[in-house]
Specification:
By secondary structure, the protein is mainly α. It has one domain. It contains ten helices and no strands. The chain has helices at 2-24, 33-67, 71-97, 102-119, 125-132, 138-148, 153-177, 180-188, 191-208, 213-218. Helix 1 runs antiparallel to helix 8 (180-188).
Amino acid sequence: MLAPLLLGLAGSMHCVGMCGPLMLALPLDATGKRQVWRQMLLYHSGRILTYVLLGIFFGLAGKGLALAGLQKALSIGAGVLLILMAFAAWRFERLVTALPGFSGFTQRIQNGMGRLMRRHSGGGVFYFGLLNGLLPCGMVYAALAAAIATTDGAAGGLFMALFGAGTLPLLLMMSVLGRSLPVAVRRIRVLQPVLIVIAGLVLLQRGLHLDLSLFESAVPKAGMECH
């Protein structure tokens, strides 16, 4: 599906700038390139697994709303929310993090990540990724809002898996290029709101049956139809 891949790519532009130093400080204990790549893949597997589990939960929540006759409204609402977030995702993130108890939850996640980093154990990178997937992130919240609109646990999990896959190209490039990549990303970050808007329009198309053939011809095909 196109929408989660676009959101993932847009999210990775945000992650490189905001979480880049954290990724470069991962507790890797390998010396060879093959071992480093294996541990990086373990880290991203943990992060994406967290996304999938969250997607299943929110997809099931959406299923309950769909049973109440709100499926069309969910898709339209998610599309409108993504378009609004294209230009103000940080405000939505601030609203979520202001919820009661959220700051304490985030602090516990950060403490757990700190303990893993102090161990300097490559075997802990998978758990580091699991925890990292729970850190506050406006782009993850945007993807979860869209996952609700799938109105199905399995579909919500798959949506978030594709979102995670969309984040991989830039984040893996950062592992190779190091600190030189964020400079390049800042030059193309103007594309981030464009990608989010297109993802929002895809969801609006589902809810309103709009003709988005112009956008579909301008954006490469995802190569997979999941729902």
